[in-house]
Specification:
single chain; about 600 residues; alpha/beta; Glucose Oxidase, domain 1; Enzyme I, Chain A, domain 2; TIM Barrel; 3 domains; 8-stranded mixed β-sheet; 8-stranded parallel β-barrel; 23 helices; about 45% helix
Length: about 600
């Protein structure tokens, strides 16, 4: 495409890593031949040999990946766990056994069997409402590509061979490819595929280089040598910008980097309002390796440790020792800071391949979270034993997810007490008074919050699911996505009810949904008198910055007024009218990268 036809062309994607940079595009040539794979029928006598060919390809892929891991530079040591995950995926039951079954059952060549299996597994992940687990579909694709390379004899991309300062343009980047990036040569990257929660995005954020993913057709529109602007804050890419646009973006880049340095320097300190009220700001994490990011961004504790990742993408259930070592390491790294471990939230949209799951018409309303744990006491007790054992090494507390009835809390606590008694009899060291709380994620729990508060040590509001269930919407259904409104008065009234119930019983009221990561919500959440808010680590510095600009007493009065409004748009507009001036810049640190500085409008 000529420079004239692409002058000031704006592509919109997902801002996966904040920052702005301007430079020359480098179009990464990647071999994507899987769509050309044809099915080949095999005679019965060749089936065993084809299975062995597949097994040999997997073995070579693992050797290749092991070499990647050994060669990882110091910049990427914190992300070796991602490549270790791929090592497990290469032997995943669904992927490995599923492909062998396809070869044997349908008598087809290994390439086509693998292609069919990947499509099936990928489809299962894509149905998951939770974006983090939905994005694990890309991990399946990346892992399978390592096998395809061996079956098809294609050569892997060598990003390490790039010898100039460029912005990489690719259809997609696997973590194995991303860990080849040399920071002195690569200023940022953009891809057709990917999202904010993909592993590639996680690596980009930790490296501090701007990245825009999910652009769909950037590789078709761009050529090597094109001048581009990457705006990771707003999720924009501008192709062949004119001089005026370049000048505007250099100014935006300077302002952002100044603000970023300011809030990052101050991120370690507490979030205290202008009139002396402190709001605890903690981090939500899904993997042990994210703790470094949580601490680096000023997280005062872990408000939500999602434990499902240890159960996914593996052929068997983790042992008690596996879980204990993970939780113990987390406790030791946090050095006495509070850690809230959420017990298993499997089912609904997250399924472990090692567990036999029943077919459900609507799994989001079926056997999941605490319901699954109570029906699988052996699995539940194994996790509880590991958590209790780890409690001897730090400040750990337990949280039960998706509680909808008081009976569930009573039964879960009974199993916990039974587990503790067993450990005590065995002479195992653990804390006898580990705090227990519940996640408030469904309307029934909101309206029973006063009774739940009598039986637990803290309440934590999970707004992601609470909003979805309250408005009867599917968060990933684009036709109803506009109904997902965190600032709707109904949501605010539910939060208010939960906080009042907690305070009436002298226990902590926390919010662990990503609603807390958006600066525009903060004046209302602070005014509703929550004790703790947790979010993705990268959002913490900006949120702390906003808290320090607010008066707690003013936000209390403001929140009361918001509870009298009728629509989300009314609440939002009042927030912007009252607090918009300093929320604008803080929005750079919003976790999803969508509410940023006033959007750039190309000159007409």
């Amino acid at each position: 495409m000529s420079e004239e036809t692409t002058k000031n062309m704006v592509l919109k994607g997902v801002g996966a890593s904040m920052g702005i940079d301007i430079g020359k595009a480098y179009l990464l040539e990647q071999e994507h031949t899987t769509h050309l794979i044809e099915e080949r029928q095999l005679p019965p006598e060749e089936i065993e040999a084809e299975v062995n060919r597949f097994k040999d390809a997997v073995s070579k892929a693992r050797q290749h990946l092991r070499q990647y891991i050994e060669d990882v530079s110091d910049d990427y040591q914190d992300h070796v766990y991602i490549l270790d995950t791929y090592m497990m995926l290469l032997k995943d039951k669904m992927l490995y056994d599923g492909t062998i079954e396809q070869i044997q059952k349908h008598r087809i060549n290994a390439e086509h069997a693998l292609k069919n299996t990947v499509e099936k597994v990928k489809g299962n992940f894509k149905k998951m409402p939770d974006p983090y687990f939905r994005d694990r579909a890309s991990d399946i694709v990346h892992a399978s590509n390592l096998i395809f390379e061996q079956l098809l004899g294609t050569k892997p991309t060598k990003i390490s061979d790039i010898d100039k300062r460029v912005i990489i343009v690719a259809r997609d980047l696997s973590p194995a490819e991303t860990t080849q990036i040399q920071l002195e040569r690569v200023k940022g990257f953009i891809t057709d595929l990917g999202s904010h929660t993909s592993h590639t995005g996680i690596i980009a954020r930790s490296l501090g280089i701007p990245a825009v993913l999910g652009l769909k057709d950037a590789t078709r529109r761009l050529e090597t040598g094109d001048l581009i602007i990457v705006d990771g804050n707003a999720g924009l890419v501008i192709i062949n910008p004119d001089e005026e646009t370049i000048a505007q973006y250099y100014d935006r880049k300077e302002r952002f980097e100044t603000f970023q340095a300011q809030v990052t320097r101050a991120s370690e300190g507490p979030a205290v309002t202008t009139d002396g009220h402190r709001l605890e700001i903690q981090a939500n994490i899904s993997m042990l390796e994210e703790v470094v990011s949580a601490l680096d961004h000023g997280g005062e504790g872990i408000g939500l440790y999602r434990t499902e990742f240890l159960y996914l993408n593996r052929p068997d259930l983790p042992s008690e020792q596996d879980l204990f070592e993970n939780y113990r390491d987390l406790a030791e790294i946090m050095r006495g800071r509070q850690i809230t471990i959420r017990t298993l939230d499997l089912g609904g949209d997250k399924f472990a391949s090692s567990i036999q799951w029943s077919e459900e018409i609507n799994p989001a309303l079926g056997l999941r979270a605490i319901r699954f744990c109570l029906q699988s006491p052996d699995i539940f007790k194994t996790q509880l034993r590991a958590i209790l054992r780890a409690s001897a090494f730090g400040n750990i507390r337990i949280m039960f997810p998706m509680v909808s009835r008081v009976e569930e809390v009573i039964e879960a606590k009974r199993i916990l007490e039974e587990t503790a008694e067993t450990l005590d009899k065995e002479g195992v060291l653990f804390k006898k008074d580990v705090p227990v709380g519940v996640m408030i994620e469904v309307p029934s729990a909101v309206f029973m919050a006063d009774i739940l508060a009598e039986k637990v040590d803290f309440l934590s509001i999970g707004t992601n699911d609470l909003i979805q269930y309250s408005f009867a919407i599917d968060r990933i259904n684009k036709q109803v996505a506009s109904l997902y409104q965190p600032l709707h008065p109904v949501v605010l009234k539910m939060i208010d009810l939960v906080v009042k119930a907690a305070k009436a019983h002298g226990i902590e009221a926390a919010l662990c949904g990503e609603m807390g990561a958006d600066p525009i919500n903060l004046p209302v959440l602070l005014g509703l008198e929550l004790d703790t808010i947790s979010m993705h680590p990268i959002s913490i510095p900006g949120i702390k910055h906003v808290v320090r600009q607010l008066s707690f007493e003013d936000t209390r009065r403001f929140a009361r007024e918001m509870l009298t409004q009728h629509t989300a748009s009314q609440v939002r507009q009042l927030v912007l009218d009252t607090y918009g001036d300093f929320l604008e810049m803080a929005a750079f640190f919003q976790s999803n990268g969508q509410a940023q500085l006033p959007a750039y409008r190309p000159a007409v």
